[in-house]
Design goal:
Number of strands: 14
CATH architecture: Alpha-Beta Barrel
CATH class: Alpha Beta
Oligomer: single chain
CATH superfamily: Aldolase class I
Helix content: 25-40%
Structural class: alpha/beta
Strand order of the largest sheet: 1-4-5-6-7-10-11-12
Number of helices: 10
CATH topology: TIM Barrel
Low-confidence stretches: none
Largest sheet: 8 strands, parallel, barrel
Distance between the termini: 10 Å
Radius of gyration: 17 Å
Amino acid sequence: MLKTRVIPTLLLRDKGLVKGENFKKHSYIGDPINAVKIFNEKEVDEIVFLDISATPNRRGPNFDLISDIASEAFMPFGYGGGVTSVDQIEKLFNLGVEKVIMNTSAHSNPELIREASRIAGAQSIVVSIDVRKTLLGNYEVYTENGTLRTKSSPVDYAKRMEELGAGELILCSIANEGTGKGYDLKLLESVCSAVDVPVVALGGCGDLQDMKNAVELGSASAVAAGNLFVFHGKLKAVLITYPKYSELVEIFGTKSGNA
């Protein structure tokens, strides 16, 4: 088992997979079920699906699609998008989702984090934190797919989510997302050093060296990426892929089953 989790993070819009840049210009790249089948063959240990159309359309999770994904996925997977109630969270777990990810609802209804953690256990409740830089160079948390300014610093926000019961955080730089320019290591290190729960780096990964930097320089507990696993080459031809296990071992090493 790798010391560091390497997590494909796929964006859903309605029933299809999409990819964009800086939370904009999303284009269709394929069918989620086909992607899951390929990742099964690649023996991916964990995967995340984020439905970016749920919150803007003021709807809940697409349970039929999630059920289809669960029936095909050999690996544990997390889901986020449109989650606003404990009933939805319980239904997601019953369908086979291992981790439920909240973003907008974590800000609009923070007590939902506490209640969900009490029911399901903190290890299953994840808060996704999307961050922009202000004109003055300060970091601020945004929700509603990066459109709603919260005026909260990511460090304070992360601490609050941990206090409420989130067992893991996904930290994404909106400015870096989809660019392949690397993670925002300054942002990453500031949040990782402020909380005790695992922090997953997301947004900007272009290669395995970026992942290594996120762990060694940014103190991330795990790394996630989208472009790296769905595009190939400078022209960004769609190709669902995943590094060879030997490549990941060379970068991150392994840990024993008892570690």
